[in-house]
Amino acid sequence: MPEQPGTPCGGPTSACAAVSRRGFLAASAAAGAGAATLATQAVASSAAGDAAAQPAAPGATTVQMTVNGAGRSLTLDPCVTLLDALRDQLDLTGSKKGCDHGQCGACTVLVNGRRINSCLTLAVMHEGDSITTIEGLGTPEALHPMQAAFVRHDGFQCGFCTPGQICSSVAMLQEIRQGVPSHATADLMQVRFSDAEVRERMAGNLCRCAAYPNIVAAIRDAAGART
């Protein structure tokens, strides 16, 4: 049968015969650019709408706590850990997210004076609690005695674990003063400071730079037990 006018690309009388290869490519490029522009505008419009229409996540709750001596009110998802709340909502980034499994101690903070791994506890569990992070222990102008001891004894190298080490050290000395025994305590009725006690009690705070001898020396210094 003879080719009918307007049929696609069948011969010299087809509609495609009138379109050059260059013209076809130019038209295709223009169509693609137009589609991409429309898609970008749609995404941007959707994102702007989402940002304006998200006052709080569904199920969010408000928690009142004292952080470094100041009352704070946080509205957050019940699944947010204390570590993430401190870092992401309060910008207290001294507490580090090391393993996020409670195995390295880099996230150690003090809750009502006791040390905990903040990555293993939910922020909503600390309604009314007093939280102390490394930022609340001292300042560059007025270091906490433990911070000053770590500086004197080079108790850090990369420094990533240091905030957790210092917070843990402060609480650990308080445990010894209160007579709380450890696995290294020989006489449960006479809990005394010793390097062995320090090493045992600080076993949950890992230092990948292996500055352990200097850390023990710094804690001994801060405890007033220089030997």
Describe, in short, the structure shown:
The chain is of the alpha+beta class and 227 residues long.
Task: Give me the secondary-structure topology.
Elements: H1 21-52, E1 61-67, E2 70-76, H2 82-89, E3 108-111, E4 114-117, E5 130-132, H3 134-137, H4 145-152, H5 162-177, H6 195-201, H7 212-222
Parallel strand pairs: 1-5
Antiparallel strand pairs: 1-2, 3-4, 3-5
Helix pairs in contact: 4-7
Organism: Pseudorhodoferax soli
Pfam family, one: Fer2_2
Protein name: Xanthine dehydrogenase YagT iron-sulfur-binding subunit
What is the class of the largest domain in the CATH system?
Mainly Alpha
Which CATH-level-2 architecture of the largest domain? Orthogonal Bundle
Strand content: 5-15%
Alpha plus pi helix count = 7
Q: What portion of residues is helical?
A: 25-40%
Q: What would CATH call the homologous superfamily of the largest domain?
A: [2Fe-2S]-binding domain
How much is the average pLDDT? 84
Q: Using the alpha-carbon principal axes, give the shape.
A: globular
GO molecular function, one term: metal ion binding
InterPro entries: 2Fe-2S-bd, 2Fe-2S-bd_dom_sf, 2Fe-2S_ferredoxin-like_sf, 2Fe-2S_ferredoxin-type, 2Fe2S_fd_BS, Aldehyde_Oxdr_Iron-Sulfur, Beta-grasp_dom_sf, TAT_signal
Keywords: 2Fe-2S, Iron, Iron-sulfur, Metal-binding, Oxidoreductase
Protein name: Xanthine dehydrogenase YagT iron-sulfur-binding subunit
